[in-house]
Description:
Largest sheet: 14 strands, parallel
Low-confidence stretches: 1-27, 301-309, 321-328
Distance between the termini: 36 Å
Amino acid sequence: MRSMWLVLRADVLSAPFxxxxxxxxxxxxxxxxxxxxxxxxxxxxxxxxxxxxxxxxGGDINGINNSSSNYGIHLDxxxxxxxxxxxxGGDINPTINLNAGHARIGGSVAGGxxxxxxxxxxxxxxxxxxxxxxxxxxxxxxxxxxxSFGGDSVSLPGSQPAAVNFSATPNSEGVAFxxxxxxxxxxxxxxxxxxxxxxxxxxxxxINVGGTSIHWNHGNMVGEFTTETGRSRVLxxxxxxxxxxxxxxxxxGSLLAPHSFLRVEGVVEGSVFVKSFRQMGEVHLPVFAMDxxxxxxxxxxxxxxPSTLLLAVWGLLVAAASRRRPVR
Length: 328
């Protein structure tokens, strides 16, 4: 909500004041949704495949060509007994299989749920809507927050085929940030032979990726991208994408794209957080391992104390309102 307020008032607040207000609103960003779920889809999910961990779907679950889908398949049934492992805001239309824990459905269940290994479920649960709304807000805010850090650039091949190497340089919090201005220059570049990662001393890696429509047609992920450490500690942040298609390639690391439709035919080795999803490949554990990101990037010059800052912001608002008051 705070970022929306800043956008609406951009005609009044200068950039330094806007940044200062943002800093007042908090010094860290919670990432709990990233390590709670293997899949979050705030809209509709259409699936013929399976998810290994916990799942939240804001809209309906539908099949592909009347197929069924499977949830919680790698969760220990004993450890997750009675724990919410599937939350659905809308309806479940095909038959699905729940392999651990408890499912809460906001709408109705048309095709049925095969509750395996002692799992349970209930439909018509009106409380799910609030959890869906909270998850959607958290995803969007987190994506914008991570984008504000920018990141190191990487060398992308232009004329000759070559590998793309992500060599992590962490900040004081142990997080390395990369920035790809246009994701098509990486994922749909016929000169990209492969993508490799060297984490070095970094604990976590965030790759901010721009571009609204991205197809992954060239290159594969290798090196530390494909290790258990890499898969649980790398987050790809597609902060402005509205369409993503990984085709049949294996995606490694967690994928955050709160505004996007995603189409997957290969496997995702990590968690997925998107607006809508056509899933024909499996979503595997692990989830993202970090639960709190560091504070905002260094703003440079110091900002006023809170009381002084708020008075200054109030003065700007009053002045702007006065300028817009019609002359009688």
